Task: inverse folding
């Protein structure tokens, strides 16, 4: 190998480091040189000084992109590896060959004053996406969702509920008729008219006294709620008006897209936020969804007031439902971070306030009401 | 860059060499912020390449016996895996809203498939990791994963948690006993007694925490139960109880994680000769994990690189190896990686099995 050493003394070495034979942990102190356009690794070990260990042309050699100051790997065609910590020397060599572009991301990553701009841009972008892009995307998604989707969602949900907990209503026919008649009175004023909504009577089972809306316009009223109302059909109608509000505002679809969007946002940067932070973000997303659902409830409450008013019934009838919740179910809970619905006393007050406001507004703008 | 290596004589004449982490918060900040920024700008596409750069930085700065680790996965590989997993999750999500009962039927299938995902994920992560130019590998079978996860969960549930240390032991034995470094084998024989000790400690922490909370709430309702006024009834007190119980669980969970890591690693050997060791301080580990989350949130995430580097440094510095004689030259036979889909599934679901 003495011929090699004469060849090598001339070219300047690019970097020093260690060389590993293919698939072996054996490490040889070595240096990287460029001999006539081919990259060559020469041994620096005393007993085999300047022995040629590996060589190849640039196109057969993979040079790992630079990340921070971790060692650079130069992988030859035979899968032997030259490792060096002299990142700058490797970059300078690549630069001299006109390959500077490959280090673009690394140059962005070098800590410089412009990092402050990056940080600000990131925070601004993230919060812009959350505050504007996400709601906008939700609206677009709701707009382009074909009606068949809520229909399928609802059909599946109703079927599941019927199998799991609901059973046929045991209310007398006359009672059901009375409620249906009043319900149709307010439904005529709702978006889409009476045909858009269908009232279903069910025995609630474990669900108990409840009323809920499916996104396709199916409303479910449990016998237990009717019994709880104790003959106050107007109040039940007000509750159903609230449910109509959920359908009109497409709350369930919105909430679904919103939850998906928030989850997507968390996932997007999840890899770089750490598992603890990711957990908190996911849980926090859940809390935000709850706060969204509270505003949806308030919106539907107001819709109930409007519908009752338009149908010529007591617009504050819904507040009587909250009275019952307070007295019969002893629910005095106030709004908290952990609840889906606003606190009962607050909701009651908001309904009374809104009904008063509507009446006042009606006096002023009487002209466009028949 | 010099790698600091301290030697700590332990017991008789065993000399353990500690691992070290040379990453710096300032340097990682640059990598991290560019990762996040490019990920946002590219609507998430860059996140696959970001993962590669992040892992290369952390692996490349983790040094043991003067040599660092290297992460070899390619961004494109990970991106394709993520696309497939994302597609599956979207399909599953749509299905769960269209036909909730059908999803119930999918669950058993998922349970059967999950151990396979875990096994492939471990294999992928091992195979894209190298140390001194020699790759790791994972040779666990589906049957082994089935026992480690399925049977482990079953035993835990049936025994109301009392056998969970047994399940932990199965799980970690599955991981370590099937791990290879080139042609060398890993193995671990954790003592069940030690795992039970950790388990009992954690249960004691939870019970003590709940008792203290119970006393506190009893005192609070005794003193001011009536003065709370309307709208602040018993339900809000329960809310507070729940909010306060969560930190107790978090602390207990962190204690358990640190204790189990110590037990498993300290019972592990490479090539049946070289002893591994982990000596995390449980309180210190819990403190670092919790304060990291707090600091990260307090700074709108901007201190996350500092937190990540801090935790990694602590973990590395409390991991050590005692080399018995000479490691010698190790060879590997790995030629391809494959299985990135399952690795990504684990990633998406928040699992992280790092080395």
Result:
């Amino acid at each position: 190998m003495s011929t090699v050493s004469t060849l090598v003394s001339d070219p300047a070495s690019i970097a020093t480091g260690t060389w590993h034979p293919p698939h072996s942990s054996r490490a040889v102190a070595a240096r990287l040189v460029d001999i006539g356009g081919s990259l060559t690794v020469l041994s620096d070990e005393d007993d085999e000084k300047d022995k040629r260990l590996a060589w190849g042309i640039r196109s057969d050699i993979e040079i790992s992109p630079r990340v921070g100051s971790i060692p650079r790997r130069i992988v030859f065609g035979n899968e032997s590896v030259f490792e060096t910590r002299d990142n700058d020397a490797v970059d300078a060599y690549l630069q001299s060959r006109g390959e500077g572009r490959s280090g673009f991301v690394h140059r962005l990553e070098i800590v410089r004053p412009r990092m402050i701009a990056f940080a600000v841009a990131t925070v601004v972008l993230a919060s812009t996406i959350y505050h504007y892009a996400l709601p906008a995307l939700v609206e677009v998604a709701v707009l382009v969702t074909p009606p068949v989707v809520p229909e399928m969602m609802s059909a599946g949900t109703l079927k599941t509920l019927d199998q799991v907990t609901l059973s046929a209503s045991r209310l007398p026919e006359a009672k059901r008729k009375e409620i249906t008649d009043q319900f149709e009175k307010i439904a005529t004023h709702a978006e889409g008219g009476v045909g858009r909504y269908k009232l279903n009577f069910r025995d609630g089972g474990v669900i108990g006294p409840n009323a809920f809306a499916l996104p396709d316009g199916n409303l479910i009223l449990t016998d237990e709620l009717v019994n709880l109302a104790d003959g106050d059909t107007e109040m039940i109608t007000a509750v159903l008006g609230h449910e109509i509000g959920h359908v009109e505002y497409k709350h369930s679809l919105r909430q679904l897209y919103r939850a998906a969007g928030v989850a997507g946002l968390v996932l997007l940067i999840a890899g770089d936020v750490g598992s603890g932070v990711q957990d908190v973000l996911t849980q926090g997303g859940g809390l935000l969804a709850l706060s969204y659902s509270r505003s949806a409830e308030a919106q539907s409450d107001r819709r109930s007031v409007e519908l009752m008013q338009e149908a010529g019934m007591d617009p504050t009838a819904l507040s009587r439902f909250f009275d019952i919740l307070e007295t019969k179910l002893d629910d005095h809970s106030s709004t908290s971070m952990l609840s889906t619905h606003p606190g009962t006393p607050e909701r009651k007050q908001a309904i009374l306030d809104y009904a008063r406001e509507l009446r006042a507004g009606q006096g002023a703008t009487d002209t466009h009401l028949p | 860059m010099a790698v600091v290596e301290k030697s700590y004589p332990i017991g008789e004449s065993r000399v353990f060499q500690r691992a070290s982490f040379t990453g710096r918060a300032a340097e990682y900040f640059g990598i991290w912020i560019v990762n996040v920024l490019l990920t946002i700008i590219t609507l998430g596409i860059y996140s696959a390449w970001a993962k590669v750069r992040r892992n290369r930085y952390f692996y490349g700065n983790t040094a043991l016996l003067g040599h660092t680790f290297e992460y070899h996965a390619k961004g494109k590989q990970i991106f394709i895996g993520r696309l497939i997993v994302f597609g599956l999750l979207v399909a599953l999500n749509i299905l769960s809203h269209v036909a909730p009962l059908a999803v119930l039927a999918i669950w058993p299938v998922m349970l059967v498939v999950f151990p396979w995902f875990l096994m492939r994920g471990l294999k992928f992560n091992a195979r894209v990791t190298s140390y001194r130019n020699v790759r790791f590998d994972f040779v666990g079978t589906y049957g082994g994963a089935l026992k480690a996860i399925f049977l482990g969960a079953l035993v835990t549930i049936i025994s109301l948690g009392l056998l969970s240390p047994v399940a932990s032991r199965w799980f970690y034995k599955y991981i370590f006993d099937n791990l290879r470094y080139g042609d060398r084998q890993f193995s671990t024989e954790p003592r069940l007694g030690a795992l039970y000790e950790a388990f009992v400690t954690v249960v004691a922490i939870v019970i003590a925490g709940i008792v203290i909370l119970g006393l506190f709430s009893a005192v609070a309702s005794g003193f001011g139960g009536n003065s709370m006024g309307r709208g602040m009834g018993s339900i809000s007190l329960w809310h507070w109880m729940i909010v306060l119980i969560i930190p107790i669980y978090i602390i207990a969970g962190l204690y358990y994680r640190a204790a189990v890591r110590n037990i498993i690693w300290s019972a592990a050997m490479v090539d049946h000769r070289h002893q591994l060791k982990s000596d995390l301080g449980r309180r210190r580990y819990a403190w670092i994990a919790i304060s990291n989350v707090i600091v990260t949130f307090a700074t709108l995430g901007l201190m996350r690189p500092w937190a990540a580097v801090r935790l990694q440094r602590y973990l590395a510095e409390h991991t050590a190896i005692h080399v018995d004689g000479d490691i010698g030259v190790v060879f590997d036979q790995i030629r391809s990686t494959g299985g990135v889909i399952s690795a990504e599934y684990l990633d998406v679901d928040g699992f992280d099995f790092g080395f």
Notes: Residues 1-9, 365-370 of chain A have pLDDT under 50 and may be disordered.
